[in-house]
């Protein structure tokens, strides 16, 4: 068996791992590169595999850095199956179409305002292609045995978001684990990740490999931020991932308001994608911690703005108020239009609640830049920028270590670290090397591993 690392190495985006036996080729995850321009340019490069000979894709979960390249495969002729959990399929139906739509709109905007170096900027793929690619999806249950040629696989719950899975793959008398994104043991919404079985190799994410999450109570942290905004008479802008973080914020805000810990004020969920995801969230109550009543309450406490006109109308809202909008790293979506309008106001607070990949606007704002570039224009940053790290859907380095020790792995199981920025990868490698007996290495881009 051979594994080629063609994404998700030395960065947190673009996860793609090609697994080959003598007769079968499978791609585990199929994500978009995001963040730095030199990374995003990889999305336009051909994969080191003949797509006609690719037998299947097996998907850990729906986030675009794991799934967003599937429409590109489809556009280039791939017609094999995409195996994933039922909830992941439901979420991909929303996320991929939205990704295609945003790319179309961005291309039109850049063309209209002459902001591109290309005379006729084109999207990587459009909404129609994304929607067509959903015909490839074949959903499976957790623990259901699947086969592609001489490769056998099953999914097991990883926490993180709805449908998120670790993939256990067997071929050539070897068993390999792909962690996917590993959730937390005390997540506000999701149930904890299931420990792993015995493996001959583990590919493990390292997003928070060099950091420990804030141990402060997320309810208290959010209440403090909201109360400061309410007192100042400003606006709270929350760039939020449509899957997971938006729903967590709805639940926290609903709970805080019902308890009287924050004043009642208008809350807008200005993300058609997050609105649809919230509906899916209520359909899969077996995968999260909320009761039926809590799930519906979190939806009732916010105002959904589905159309562009409804989004624009928020500008006329009296202060204070809260706007939750995509995207989570401020790379696109409706949050940018609110940024253009409100970032230069000192009464504005921007709250980040999830990981910010290097090169994204979110990362730059957390670094303390004086201005951010949006649609070709520099917007002064006079707003207060805050972060609540405790709402992350990723396990930190201590939680990853706990997950490993709860698993059935042998002490000397080899681990290849993936899906992390260089500092996180090295931090987790050193931690595991000094505190465990696992054989730990950091995977490199285009590395080939033979078992």
Structure description:
This protein has 2 domains: 2-211 and 393-450, Metallo-beta-lactamase, Chain A; 218-391, Rossmann fold. It has helices at 37-40, 64-67, 70-75, 86-112, 127-133, 218-232, 245-259, 272-283, 292-300, 308-313, 335-342, 361-366, 397-406, 422-435; strands spanning 2-7, 16-20, 25-30, 56-58, 82-85, 137-140, 146-148, 151-157, 165-171, 174-178, 201-205, 235-239, 267-269, 303-304, 321-325, 348-352, 371-374, 377-380, 384-387, 414-418, 439-442, 448-450. Strand 7 (146-148) and strand 8 (151-157) form a beta hairpin. The chain is globular and about 65 Å long. The model has no long low-confidence stretch (mean pLDDT 93). It starts with a strand and ends with a strand. With 451 residues, it is of the alpha/beta class. The strands form 4 sheets. The chain has a 7-stranded mixed beta sheet with strand order 6-5-4-3-2-1-22. It has a 7-stranded mixed beta sheet with strand order 7-8-9-10-11-20-21, with helices on one face.
Going by helix content, strand content and strand pairing, the class is: alpha/beta
Low-confidence stretches: none
CATH class of the largest domain: Alpha Beta
Helix content: 25-40%
Shape: globular
- The DSSP helix count reads 14
How large, in whole angstroms, is the Cα Rg?
21 Å
CATH topology of the largest domain: Metallo-beta-lactamase, Chain A
Question: Order of strands side by side in the largest beta sheet?
Answer: 6-5-4-3-2-1-22
Number of domains: 2
Q: Major sheet: size, sense and barrel closure?
A: 7 strands, mixed
How far is it from the N-terminal to the C-terminal residue, by CA? Answer: 5 Å
CATH architecture of the largest domain: 4-Layer Sandwich
Question: What's the average pLDDT?
Answer: 93
Strand content: 15-25%
CATH superfamily of the largest domain: Ribonuclease Z/Hydroxyacylglutathione hydrolase-like
Instruction: Tell how many strands the DSSP assignment holds.
Output: 22
């Amino acid at each position: 068996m051979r594994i080629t690392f063609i994404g998700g190495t030395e960065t947190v985006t673009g996860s793609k791992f090609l697994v080959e036996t003598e007769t079968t080729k499978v791609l585990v995850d199929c994500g978009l590169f995001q963040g730095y321009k030199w990374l995003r340019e990889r999305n336009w490069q051909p994969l080191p595999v003949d797509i006609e000979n690719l037998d299947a894709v097996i998907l850990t979960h729906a986030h675009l850095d794991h799934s967003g390249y599937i429409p590109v495969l489809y556009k280039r002729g791939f017609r094999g199956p995409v195996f994933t959990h039922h909830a992941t399929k439901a979420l991909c139906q929303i996320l991929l179409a939205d990704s295609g739509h945003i790319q179309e709109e961005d291309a039109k905007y850049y063309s209209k305002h002459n902001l591109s170096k290309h005379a006729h900027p084109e999207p990587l793929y459009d909404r129609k292609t994304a929607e067509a690619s959903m015909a490839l999806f074949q959903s499976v249950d957790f623990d259901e045995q699947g086969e592609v040629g001489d490769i056998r696989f099953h999914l097991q719950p990883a926490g993180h978001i709805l449908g998120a899975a670790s993939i256990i793959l067997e071929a050539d008398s070897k068993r390999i684990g792909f962690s996917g994104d590993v959730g937390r043991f005390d997540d506000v919404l999701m149930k904890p990740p299931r420990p792993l079985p015995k493996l001959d190799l583990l590919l493990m994410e390292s997003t928070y490999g060099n950091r420990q999450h804030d141990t402060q109570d997320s309810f208290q942290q959010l209440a403090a931020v909201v109360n400061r905004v309410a007192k100042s008479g400003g606006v709270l802008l929350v760039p939020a991932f449509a899957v997971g973080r938006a729903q967590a914020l709805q639940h926290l805000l609903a709970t805080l308001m019902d308890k009287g810990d924050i004043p009642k004020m208008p809350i807008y969920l200005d993300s058609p994608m997050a609105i649809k995801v919230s509906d899916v969230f209520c359909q899969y109550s077996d995968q999260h911690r909320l009761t039926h009543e809590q799930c519906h309450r979190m939806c009732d406490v916010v105002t959904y703005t589905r159309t562009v006109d409804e989004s624009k109308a928020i500008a006329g809202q009296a202060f204070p108020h809260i706007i939750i909008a995509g995207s989570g790293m401020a790379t696109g979506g409706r949050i940018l239009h609110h940024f253009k309008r409100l970032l230069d106001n000192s009464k504005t607070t921007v709250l980040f609640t999830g990981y910010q990949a290097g090169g994204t606007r979110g990362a730059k704002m957390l670094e303390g830049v004086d201005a951010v570039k949006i649609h070709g224009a520099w917007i002064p940053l006079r707003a207060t920028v805050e972060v609540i790290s405790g709402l992350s859907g990723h396990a930190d380095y201590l939680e990853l270590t706990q997950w490993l020790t709860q698993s059935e792995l042998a002490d000397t199981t080899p681990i290849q670290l993936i899906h992390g920025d260089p500092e996180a990868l090295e931090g987790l490698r050193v931690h595991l090397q000094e505190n465990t007996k696992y054989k730990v290495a950091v995977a490199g881009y285009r590395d080939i591993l033979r078992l």
